[in-house]
Structure of Small ribosomal subunit protein bS18m:
Amino acid sequence: MENLQQQQQEQQQAGSAAGGAGRAPSLGPAVKVPPLVRSQHYVPATLNVQTHAPRTYFRAIPLLGPGRAEAELVDQLHKLQLRPGHPSLADDSYKNPVLLMPYISDMGKIKRRALSRLTRRSQREVGKAIRRARAMGLVPIMSNQDSAGWRLR
């Protein structure tokens, strides 16, 4: 018992010698916590240093497709001057499902321009042609994996 009292007195003397009389011992390096905002609701469980620390934001990957020059080199519809979004007597590519299938995902969604590598104009026209082909029943609406419908796994 006397040993504990001696240790406490030594700690108090060491604290007062360092100029920290009456203060609690430091718990680590000082962390800047932003002030609480007035008239904002806080959940008590979230009032800690980790949730109040400044966040680091990561730059999002751009969702746009290729540039014009790159797309014109890769885009077969542009090279062949096919316009599936504009039906005409000379061009019946809008009702050719084999031409449209590479631009449809496994789940039946229209692929975005970053994946299809089409020009802006061709991407709009392919989307329009796919929607028309779905309405006519040439292209499956949900999935192109199995023509009989959904498979059980």
In short: The radius of gyration is 33 Å. Helices lie at 2-17, 49-52, 68-74, 76-79, 97-100, 113-116, 120-136. Residues 68-136 form a domain with the 30s Ribosomal Protein S18 fold (CATH 4.10.640).
